[in-house]
Amino acid sequence: MIENLPKPSLLKWAMLVVLLNKGRPMGAREIDRGVAVLLNLSDPILEFRMENGKLYIQYRLAWERTKSKKLGYIEKVPDLPRTWSLTPKGKMYARKKERLFFSRVAQSDSSPN
Predict the structure, then answer these.
(1) Residue 16: CB atoms within 10 Å
(2) CA atoms within 13 A on the CB side of 25
(3) Are 64 and 7 in contact (CB under 8 A)?
(4) 55 phi and psi angles, rounded to 5 deg
(5) Which of 32, 46, 79, 107 has the fewest CB within 10 Å, making it most exposed?
(6) Are strands 26-27 and 83-86 parallel, antiparallel or unpaired?
(7) SS3 readout for the chain
(8) How does pLDDT run across 6-64, given as a tens digit for each residue?
(9) Tens digit of each residue's pLDDT (9 = 90 or more) over 55-98
């Protein structure tokens, strides 16, 4: 098992922020690549396969899309397979989480070592 695999909650946040920042519907693979860049995921993490042979990141992000759809944060784009867009609720959630995340990063950067 690889250390430091990103938690599902972090992947969900990153997925929503990627969609928010792109400002348009995105395909699943494009979202996955955007998350990898945003989180600066290493090759060993991106290539890690679970016991069932599936890539961990692709598998987890597929589940996060499913859960986010059920929560009303994203929706499938009609007539475009595997393409997703943010809902208004998803935009509000992504902006809130993005501000919270970056405020925590700024606080940790300013704290004395």
Answers:
(1) 24
(2) 13
(3) no
(4) -70, 130
(5) 79
(6) antiparallel
(7) CCCCCCCHHHHHHHHHHHHHHHCCCEEHHHHHHHHHHHCCCCHHHHCCECCCCCEHHHHHHHHHHHHHHHCCCEEECCCCCCEEEECHHHHHHHHHHHHHHHHHHHHHHHCCC
(8) 999 889 999 999 999 999 999 999 999 999 999 999 999 999 999 999 999 999 999 99
(9) 999 999 999 999 999 999 999 999 999 999 999 999 999 888 77
> Distance between CA 89 and CA 55 in Å, rounded?
29
User: Residue 64 has which token pair?
Assistant: 């996060």
Domains of the chain, first to last: 8-108 (1.10.10.10)
Which position has the token pair 């060993």?
A: 44
Beginning with the edge strand found earlier in the chain, give each strand of the sheet holding 74-76 in spatial order. 26-27, 83-86, 74-76
In the numeric block, which tokens belong to residue 92?
A: 């509000």
